[in-house]
Write a structure and sequence with these properties.
The structure holds 2 protein chains of 2 kinds. Chain A has helices spanning about 5-15, 20-30, 35-50, 65-70, 75-85, 100-110, 140-150, 160-165, 200-210, 225, 230-235, 240, 255, 275-280, 320-360, and strands at about 50-60, 85-90, 115-120, 125, 135, 140, 155, 175, 190. Chain A is α/β, with parallel strands linked by helices. Chain A folds into 3 domains: about 50-225, Rossmann fold, CATH 3.40.50.700; about 230-305, Cytochrome-c3 hydrogenase, C-terminal domain (Cytochrome-c3 Hydrogenase, Chain A, domain 2); about 320-355. In chain A, the strands form 3 sheets. A 5-stranded parallel beta sheet of chain A has the order 2-1-3-7-9, sandwiched between helices. A two-stranded antiparallel sheet of chain A has the order 4-8. In chain A, a hairpin with a 2-residue loop joins β5 (about 135) and β6 (about 140). By secondary structure, chain B is an all-alpha fold. Chain B has a domain at about 5-20 and about 65-185. Chain B contains 9 helices and no strands. In chain B, α7 (about 145-165) runs antiparallel to α8. Chain B is globular and about 65 Å long. Classes of the chains: A alpha/beta, B mainly alpha. At the A-B interface, α15 of A face α1, α4 and α8 of B.
């Protein structure tokens, strides 16, 4: 058997049956809504592929994305890490630390030049040379540039990496930006969400490994398979929206009856994600099912949309002073216009009397 | 800044400011004028100004007998789209939330499907009104750009709202942003064109009633 075996050979060596690979391929195919024939191609692609080197960089983030990923149900973490990919660098999961950890990243980059995938969670600080977020004394922005230069592709997981997320929320003190703003010469896939759904991350990576190219993406660089429809379109509470039945608060009769949460700020109508279909924790539930509106966490700038509990159809906050000023201006203009008209009228009606006086 | 953020933020802010300032300007500018513009004394037996004004407002809600047949379409169609607009604007839950956010008042709405149905009828009625205006030689002669602009700026929010509610033609957030922007255009134009009749029609009809009553003419 070769020193650098294919995944098929690798799995066979580990006692994983071909049937298990087919089951996994069928699962990923179904997740990504691939045509039935594609599942076979996916299985063949996985079997023929080499173990994919993955370097996972964590920048301005909360580790929620890793927490979510480690809870992916199928494929399990063990399968994903040890069978399909080689996770060569991940600060939170690797045993090595310090220089040894950094050396592992450099070694993986050298050994898989042009072939490795870089997964990034977290935004990148760019202000003042990126000094607000460093690893081992190296600014995130420099580490990213150094790591992606020989990468095959970059996967930005989580809304911070995909769109800047919470670190870039106003006033964005560290000058945080999305990965796609810094990486312009490599393919970038965004798996947004706070955190992203585990199956979306795992499925996208499996697709990359099997087919060697990117799945179909939307205009924000997200796989359409997972971000093609809004939460609202797939929400089980949608019929209540159509019937005009809404919860007015989180503890009223409407909330107890499971009515639509639009009035308490649900952003489902403008949020593209698979929460309502894949759900979380192995399909147990998702935020709306648990009684809270969607925050719109997989959309750009979700933190700065005027408040999580402000209904979507309302204006963004801050109108008060402007409208009060407009009202004062309108009253002044109206009174002024009326005064001018009265003056004009007075002159007009007084004119004949003056003429009569002149004549006498 | 996304298109929806722009629509819900700066665009709505500016258009509402123009709307409020413009409406107050025109409204107060008209209402603060001298009310008694006819120097002559009222005729003996003339109704009081309040009665004459009220009569003027109510009577003018129906066309006069000689014009009933000829003006039937205009009359009925006018009622259809005006009532339709009122229902769509005031009884659609997201619209109620918008108004609630502005002035703190809310009320029960109608199911979305009913509002959508009324919206379709309103849109068809508006198209019929335009077709009538374009095909009637007299109406075409007296129509001004203001009439067509007012029609377009009324029709666009209805059409974009229907598309947004049905998720037709583009992504929902884009449709919603276009709908809000069309409302912004409507608000900016409102005080300065024919649309201002929504606030002034009662006063103009009331004044007509007062003048006719003062002269002893039948209202």
């Amino acid at each position: 058997m070769a020193d650098n075996p294919t995944l098929g050979e690798w799995l066979s060596r580990r006692g994983v049956s071909r049937r298990a690979v087919l089951q996994y391929a069928a699962y990923v195919g179904a997740l990504m809504a691939l045509p039935p024939a594609a599942s076979g191609a996916l299985a063949r692609g996985l079997a023929a592929a080499r173990r994919q080197s993955v370097i996972w960089l964590s920048f301005q983030e909360c580790t929620g994305c890793t927490e979510s990923w480690t809870r992916s149900f199928s494929p399990t973490l063990e399968n994903l890490i040890f069978d399909f990919i080689s996770l060569d660098y991940h600060e939170a999961l690797q045993a090595a630390s310090g220089e040894a950890a950094e050396n592992a990243r450099l070694a993986a980059m050298a050994a898989n030049k042009g072939k490795y995938i870089v997964v990034v969670d977290g935004a990148v600080s760019t202000k003042d040379g990126g000094v607000y977020s460093t690893i081992g004394g190296v600014a995130n922005v420099d580490m990213l540039a150094d790591t992606v230069k020989d990468a095959l592709a970059v996967v930005a997981v989580g809304s911070c990496a995909a769109f800047g997320g919470i670190p870039s929320a106003k006033p964005n003190p560290t000058g945080a930006v999305a990965i796609s703003q810094l990486v312009v010469d490599k393919p970038v896939v965004n798996i947004s969400g706070c955190p992203p759904i585990a199956e979306a991350m795992a499925g996208t990576l499996a697709y990359l490994v099997a087919f060697g190219n990117l799945p179909e993406l939307d205009h924000l660089g997200r796989p359409k398979a997972f971000f093609g429809e809004t939460i609202h379109d797939r929400c089980y509470r949608r019929p209540f929206y159509e019937r005009g039945l809404f919860a007015e608060g989180f503890d009223d009769e409407g909330a107890r009856r499971g009515y639509c949460l639009y009035k308490v700020g649900c952003k489902g109508p403008v949020t593209y994600n698979s929460c309502a279909t894949l759900k979380w924790n192995g399909g147990v539930s998702f935020p709306i099912q648990s009684g809270h509106g969607c925050l719109g966490c997989s959309e750009p700038d979700f933190w700065d949309q005027g408040g999580f509990y402000r209904p979507l159809s309302t204006s963004l906050p801050g109108l008060g002073p402007t409208l009060a000023g407009a009202a004062v201006a309108g009253v002044a203009l109206g009174v002024g216009a009326a005064w001018l008209s009265r003056r004009h009228l007075k002159t007009f009606t007084a004119a004949p009397e003056k003429t009569e006086g002149d004549a006498s | 800044m996304t298109l929806l953020e722009f629509a819900r933020g700066p665009a709505l802010q500016v258009s509402l400011a123009v709307f409020i300032a413009g409406v107050l300007w025109r409204f107060l500018g008209a209402l603060l004028l001298p009310w008694r513009l006819i120097p002559a004394e009222p005729r003996q037996g003339a109704p009081s100004p309040a009665v004459a004004a009220l009569k003027g407002i109510i009577v003018k809600m129906w066309p006069l007998a000689p014009f009933q047949k000829a003006g039937l379409f205009t009359f009925l169609n006018g009622y259809i789209f005006h009532l339709g607009l009122a229902i769509v604007v005031l009884l659609f839950a997201p619209h109620i939330l918008f108004i609630d956010g502005l002035i703190g008042l809310d009320w029960p709405g109608l199911p979305n499907n009913i509002v959508a149905m009324v919206g379709v009828v309103t849109a068809v009625s508006l198209v019929a009104a335009l077709a009538h205006r374009l095909t009637s030689p007299v109406l075409r002669l007296i129509s001004r750009p203001d009439d067509y602009a007012s029609w377009a700026l009324t029709f666009l929010p209805v059409a974009s709202g229907l598309l947004a509610s049905a998720h037709l033609g583009a992504r929902y957030e884009t449709l919603l942003a276009l709908h809000v922007l069309s409302v912004c255009a409507f608000l900016v134009w409102f005080p300065f064109g024919r649309l201002m009749h929504a606030f002034l029609f009662a006063f103009s009809r009331g004044m007509t009633g007062i003048r006719m009553g003062q002269r002893g003419a039948a209202i």
